Amino acid sequence: MPPLPLRPASPCIARCSTALGDEICRGCGRSFAEVANWVAMTEAQQEAVWQRLEQEKSKGSDERRCDC
After folding, report:
1. What is the C-alpha separation between 46 and 38, in angstroms, rounded?
2. Separation between Cα atoms, residue 8 and residue 68, nearest integer Å
3. Which of 1 and 4 is assigned the larger pLDDT?
4. How many angstroms separate the CA atoms of 27 and 30, rounded?
5. What secondary structure does DSSP assign to 7-68, as a single string?
6. pTM more than 0.90
7. pLDDT tier at 3, thresholds 50, 70, 90
8. What is the pLDDT of residues 32-67, one digit of tens each?
9. How many angstroms separate the CA atoms of 26 and 63, rounded?
10. d(CA 44, CA 21)
11. Is the distance from CB of 18 to CB of 26 less than 8 angstroms?
């Protein structure tokens, strides 16, 4: 298996909307469960989330970004 890319510890960009009741964070794009469980996730689980976020970004699904 190739080495994992260097990334920040979390996709969080400090604009969390899950605390306001959103199921998907408008800041980072993770689900409420992914945000809440991030520190307990394995490296493989975190990598799967990173990959999904990158795919969504490359497809132009960047509607989660807020103007806050």
Report:
1. 7
2. 22
3. 4
4. 8
5. --S-S--S---GGGT-SB-TTT--BHHHHHHGGGS-HHHHHHHHHHHHHHHHTT--TT----
6. no
7. confident
8. 999 999 999 999 999 999 999 999 988 876 555 544
9. 8
10. 27
11. no
Q: C-alpha 31: how far from its chain's center?
A: 7
Looking at residue 16, its amino acid is: C
Tokens of 60: 């132009």
* Closest CA relative to residue 64, chosen from 7, 17, 9, 20: 17
Alpha-carbon distance of 26 to 15, in angstroms, equals: 7
CB atoms within 10 A of CB 5: 9
At residue 19, the pLDDT reads 87
Q: How far is CA 67 from the centre of its chain?
A: 18
